[in-house]
Amino acid sequence: MCGIVGYIGKRDAIPILMDGLKTLEYRGYDSAGLVGFKGEEVVFEKAVGRVANLDEKIDKHGGFSGNIGIAHTRWATHGGVTELNAHPHTGCNQNIFLVHNGIIENYQKIKDKLIETGHRFYSETDTEVLAHLIEELRDKDNILLEDAVRLALQKIKGTYGLVVVDKRNPYKMVIARNFSPLILGVGKDEFIVASDATAILRSTSSVIYLNDGEIAVLEPDKYRIFNIDNEQVDRTPEELDWDIETAKKGDFPHYMLKEIYEEPEAIKNSIRGRLDLENGKAVLGGLSSIKEDLSKIDRLHISACGTAYIAGLVGEYMIEEYAGVPVEVDYASEVRYRKPIFGKRDAMLTISQSGETADTLAALYEAKEKGILTLGIVNAVGSTISRETGAGVYQHIGPEIGVASTKSFVSQLSILALLTVYIGRKKGMSLVMGKRILDELSRIPEKMERLLKLNDGIKELANRYAGYNNFLYMGRKYNFPMALEGALKIKEIAYVHAEGYASGEMKHGPIALIDKNFPSLIICPQDSVYEKNISNIEEIKARGGIVIAIGTEGDDRIRNLVDDVIYIPKTLEMLTPILVSLPLHLFAYHVGVKKGYDVDKPRNLAKSVTVE
Ligand code: F6R
């Protein structure tokens, strides 16, 4: 969603800001804008569409080289996609400029009052109100920019990642955060502020994660952090362990393909140092503070969105079968609206790649408010969810740039397998079973490497099937959630209507859809429900339907039943979803590419969904 970049220092700000905006493009946006100062001179441009359109406008300013500026990519919430609505926003006198992520809930009330005092508004956004309010407070009593920002924030209700500059003092920048990510990169005599660590990495790996309600005032060689009540806050920078190379596309045509190819490595990184094969135990240091309580839980609630939710469903099957703990999985967006029953000894696990998904965060707050144990599986270090959960497990897979979750999904599945062993061994899982699961998990990356060799075959298959407008994805038990994942991926990447179903449900409705124009993809490895899935395949074939199957290597029977088959290596039943992911992801990718879509940035989608 919306992205923020700000720079203050000794270097030329504009190339750094434009570079930052390009890095943030993957998050999804519809317009972009930038303001930079050099003394009294100002470059202020906005453009609808791609950052490249803004680049063209900025280019016209030729040699401009100021040392301070702010920039933004907008994903429309209040008001349409227009230049006027794009950020930065400014007040009546065009001195104060700001970029903002989040939502100002009481903006209309403040706007009405400001209009009464003579302010004139040009946009439909909630953000513009902030610019006028800060202008009003600063100019009326001639107070410092940081004081005006603090006083303005005391008056608003809502969420913000905010960066403010004033043309009259081009040596100062004020930033603030409340429930919307903002990271401060601390360089030598310079600061880079961004809503996403990837936009900072090129300049520095030394970062400060602002907490909610905190404000920082930045001058090229110093910074000061305080809270909304103007109390000083001490914070030292931390090292960000993400590698800049991971955020580059290299020789791959798309990030999505690169990240599918990184799936084996992602699993290695997520399980590294966490397998105690000798004792059949999972070593999850991030859970040590809650280890005793976790071993006593009565029930685990899993809350997440999209693909992370699907990972949670697979986790439900794993944990219930092998750790014997009842699990309930919810779309995070539903948790606060239904009335979930949390027992005293229940725990909530939130799963989120970005660690910033607003709905997942809201579910987490709901659980915290009810006083139950909370834990998380998160990729983005220092993200809000990672800091708000009581304990957790980091994915350690580096940035994921493609909008679709791919390497992140398999990493989450492998951590859920670890968590199953972690909880299971405290709940009576045998040493032998613990060893078996971990031993097989350690072999998964090598099996995934083998699966990557299928890329050309899956591409050819995808090209043949790219003309179909509908798909039915089906699977049972562990692979029912994988049917949902396959359908979700082809929907978002290739804009193909697809239904994900538990195979057993086929006869209760979806079978009516089957004809020669509605292919089914059935996930049918040789597991405990193999024969049941075979029956479903036969039923579809009897009705003239087309079937692609994902089966186990060496299964010749299935080859004779279906139209096309993709083979995966044999593994434990509970780990098959990890292997199944890769061909599902490749298939969706190749159908999307064949249809000519921008698979890294599917329409209307955002990488990090920071609004409800
Ligand atoms: C689908 C996809 C989304 C995300 C969802 C949650 O491919 O990427 O469904 O899984 O938006 O995002 P995180 O994991 O960042 O909370």
Automatic annotation (TrEMBL):
Q: Name one Pfam family in it.
A: SIS
- The active site of this protein is located at C2 (nucleophile), K607 (for fru-6p isomerization activity)
Q: Which Gene Ontology MF annotations are present?
A: carbohydrate derivative binding; glutamine-fructose-6-phosphate transaminase (isomerizing) activity
- Report the catalytic activity: D-fructose 6-phosphate + L-glutamine = D-glucosamine 6-phosphate + L-glutamate
Task: Supply the alphabetized keyword list.
Answer: Aminotransferase, Cytoplasm, Glutamine amidotransferase, Repeat, Transferase
Q: Top EC class per UniProt?
A: transferase
The annotated subunit structure for this chain is: Homodimer.
Concerning HAMAP family, the annotation shows: GlmS
Name of the protein in its database record: Glutamine--fructose-6-phosphate aminotransferase [isomerizing]
| Taxonomic lineage | Bacteria, Candidatus Colwelliibacteriota
